[in-house]
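Issue: ligand-bound run for tryptophan - logging full I/O for the record.

Environment: standard queue, default settings, no custom constraints.

Inputs:
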Amino acid sequence: MRGLSVAGQLSAHLAGLCDVLGLDQSASIELMMDLLGSNGSRLLSEPPPWPSNVADDHTPVEYSVAFNGAEPPSLRILGEALGSPPSAQANMRAGYKFIDSQVTKFGLSTKRLNAVKDLFATEQPQGAFALWSSLVFRSGRAPEFKVYLNPEVRGVDQAPALVGEALDRLKLGGSYQSLLDRVIRPGELGLQDRISFFALDLDDGPQARVKLYLTHHHADVHDIARAARVVSGVDPSEVAEFCSLAAGTSRFSGRPLVGSYTLTEGSDEPVGYSIYVPIRSYVSDDQEARDKAVALLKRYGFDAGILDQALAQLTQRPLRDGVGLIPHVSLRLGPPRPGVTVYLSAETYSVFPPRSKQIPAARSPVERGSTRTTATIR
Ligand code: TRP
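Outputs:
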């Protein structure tokens, strides 16, 4: 087992997940190989080449299954391309190179990315990452791509203006300031409330999205309801309830909750909202996380059996024996496909031991620390 390469392990996961979801394996495996590049041939027994923040154990890849009402669930991969050798700058370059190499193959549009990339590309990228990619696989369709850029790449204090400029260039800046004014807790911009991701769909359709993510440290359910309320058509109490059910509390003092606002051309206001609950930080073990995820899926009428089948492709260990296999659950509201997403860890490098209910959840650091020495913040 330990003689297996990272690429070998992750391809086996993908083959299994594609089987469960009725998807073609070759497209996702090929893209994953491209994303991993030469780092894919490293052995599982070697340490991670870079402390990627995509997943707690530093695997540069995280899976998710997005359930929706209109079509079968889709498979998504969030990944960080790493340079060889990796560094903040080499990883950023590897990320752009990965995207560039897919443009012609998949007919991607980089028009909007090109319009803003200089803002997010700097000689010395700061923060936890510079560029992540997400790949979405749906039955019978070409993969869809999204890039995640780091608004804090020039420093935390630069993020609000940087995003303002990016949105202006994309003609989506109309409601940005009022959004911040209504959502951010007084005096907490850049402290407890952070602008954490700026994401772009790499397609050209009228519905191509920009998503703006805010991370809310030490929020309570009222803070989350306030963040959701600014999007018309979104029921803040539904969002609040989802969070309380997922986390089993109404004060989120473990890992922070993240909300995202969907912006599309032709609308001055956000058209959708998603909330991401880092469920791993609010449960004792993966059995508890699985049971909560199943309850949430059922509540929305989705086939929870698929989740169990997906988990079985990733690990054979008893779910009680670790925590972190299900890092997040999210509720997506608004177009194009509302639904529930369950995130899944590859656990390539480590499984975190279950935590006892007696240990109070540690305050999660605002800046990322080493996950190895601060295992209680999962
Ligand atoms: N691992 C990071 C975190 O938990 C980043 C991340 C990966 C993330 N997948 C995510 C954040 C899904 C929110 C939602 O913060």
